[in-house]
Amino acid sequence: MKHISILVPQGAILGSIEGPRQVFTEVNKFLNSIRQPALFKVQLVGLAREVPVAGGRYTVFTDVLTPDLAKTDLIIIPALDGDMVKTLEFNQEFIPWIKQQYSLGAEVASLCVGAFLLASTGLISGKQCATHWMAANAFRQMFPDVQLVEDKIITDEQGIYSSGGAFSYLNLILYLIEKYAGRNVAVFMSKAFQIDYQRNSQSPFMIFQGQKEHDDETIKKAQEYIENNLQERITVDELASMLALSRRNLERRFKKATSNSVVEYMQRVKIEAAKLSLESARENINEVMYNVGYTDPKAFRTTFKKITGLSPVQYRNKYVREMPVAV
Predict the structure, then answer these.
(1) pLDDT score at 325
(2) What is the CATH superfamily name and number for domain 217-319?
(3) Which residues contact 167 (CB under 8 A, 6 or more apart)?
(4) 3-state secondary structure (DSSP) of residue 315
(5) Closest Cα partner for 66 from 106, 27, 39?
(6) For the whole model, what pTM was predicted?
(7) d(CA 81, CA 132)
């Protein structure tokens, strides 16, 4: 039987504790229904017997405390809420226990912004990690040595897993169930809980928010110029000249401040504007393309799909907002 330890940190998001517990427990029920033995022993593990979560709105009663649990097979780190620096301080006693368990052979999985607690252990330095796209800039600032992959729903590297934003953690839980219990059981769980089994990217859900939480005022001017001149085909050399910088210096400072190259930033700003236009259904795709400075339909489609994971037509069909009918 595989021992699963779902951590209960102070300030955790309740759903990302109860959701995994419910799904793993349901696997046991399903296996029993087909006359097979239960596969998982699921426990809620904390630093205290009673832990306030969801901003203190709820209290979770843990099954076992970390000092009393010598060995486990899989640690689930749920999503966290509130001021991340303070939340990590409240829960820092988890860190040596997680590291010790990993050294003893346990696997570790973080859900959504639980990635911050995972990264605090140092176990993913130099490794890939996913988190909620809205927390990406803060994560990069706090953990520059971790290879953040914004678009991925799941990462799997050397017994350490992470998931993308919000309820995409259910895709990681299914992934782990398939690994431990087989594909047939995972498919049954996807149907029972109505989880989209094949979703592997959070790109279609992302909203690009230009990273401006830095102190380089010259780069902020560059960002604002790009954002205010969507229809223009600005070159990096033109931007460097306007700011009285060498191209090399501009590229270096821009990447350091925003985590994007100048060209990547231009593309993402234009595609974000295109997404908003496509959602309104007022303009056709060619009009949207021209309004954000593209003249080549193939280049527009290629860039759009690279950033969102969908073609412009697919994106419109998925997210178009219906216009109210006048009566």
Answers:
(1) 42
(2) Homeodomain-like (1.10.10.60)
(3) 15, 19
(4) helix
(5) 106
(6) 0.69
(7) 12
